[in-house]
């Protein structure tokens, strides 16, 4: 009974924090650059078409950049900043060592700076490029609310501490997503981004070798698939070998990822974890039927908008970087 007064005091504080977060998100708007840089999204799309035509395998990495940005300090383009002599930035954190596409972001930003100097933020560039990467990989489109500002701080330690790990189980992943205002549905829907791209051996080798005292390999991983992965990933130290996250379809945004997961052929432990929760397994099995592609596409766009609102800087906060890899 003695804790009731504390709860009464804490509740308004929690509501105040939530309201502050919602207010920042509300300041983002579709068409934000309609007067200051009306061709902004067209410029991004034009460059993205050239980038993906030349290198279709970049669709996954460019989508991943936006994810990895938003889960650390919010969607503020802090993932793009270079390390300095006195600071190791997010992009050099262990979970981000395999990130690609930085040069493509710089290329798009340069085009925007030439057309509209000091106007379009790098954080917005990442959000638009992520959407266009999905569209150009034959996935859905969605309106992207814009108006984010760029952060000035980037920490490798924060990235290591806050990014959802490939080995995550449902309780851990739920906690990380909830801390960013995202729920279980967002978790299972955004996991569908694993339909695009590849992964280096160390990110999943723990499922193949010395998994536990009782099992050499992860018993939740289909044994035939595990054998196939071992032919590519010879040891946990193999940093050169890549595996498709959605075998046979890794350059196309579709629902085949869920069919692999339903057959216990998800590459990561975090993929396999989706079969351990009633809410997520129901979604996986439903989308895996191939009868609800339109539902997944709609859900994905909605969850991407929700994720794109996480921790955004707006108004006079942060800055508009001239070059995405260095603060002004």
Describe the protein.
The structure is a single chain. The protein is an all-alpha fold. Residues 1-22 have low confidence and may be disordered. 46% of the residues lie in helices and 2% in strands. The protein contains 13 helices and 2 strands, in the order ααααααααβαβαααα. The protein has a two-stranded antiparallel ribbon with strand order 1-2. Helix 2 (40-54) crosses helix 5 (122-136). The protein has helices at 4-26, 40-54, 59-70, 102-115, 122-136, 156-162, 170-178, 184-190, 223-232, 256-262, 269-272, 278-288, 293-308; strands at 198-200, 242-244.
List keywords for this structure.
328 residues, mainly alpha, two-stranded antiparallel sheet, 2% strand, disordered N terminus
* Distance between the amino and carboxyl termini: 53 Å
Coarse shape: globular
Query: What structural class do you assign from the helix and strand content?
Result: mainly alpha
Strand composition percent: under 5%
Order of helices and strands: HHHHHHHHEHEHHHH
Number of helices: 13
Q: Would you count the extended β strands for me? A: 2
Biggest sheet character: 2 strands, antiparallel
Gyration radius from CA atoms, angstroms: 20 Å
Fold topology:
Layout: H1 4-26, H2 40-54, H3 59-70, H4 102-115, H5 122-136, H6 156-162, H7 170-178, H8 184-190, E1 198-200, H9 223-232, E2 242-244, H10 256-262, H11 269-272, H12 278-288, H13 293-308
Antiparallel strand pairs: 1-2
Helix pairs in contact: 2-4, 2-5, 3-5, 8-12, 8-13, 10-12
Q: Summed up, what is this model?
A:
The protein is an all-alpha fold and 328 residues long. It has helices at 4-26, 40-54, 59-70, 102-115, 122-136, 156-162, 170-178, 184-190, 223-232, 256-262, 269-272, 278-288, 293-308, and strands at residues 198-200, 242-244. It has a two-stranded antiparallel sheet.
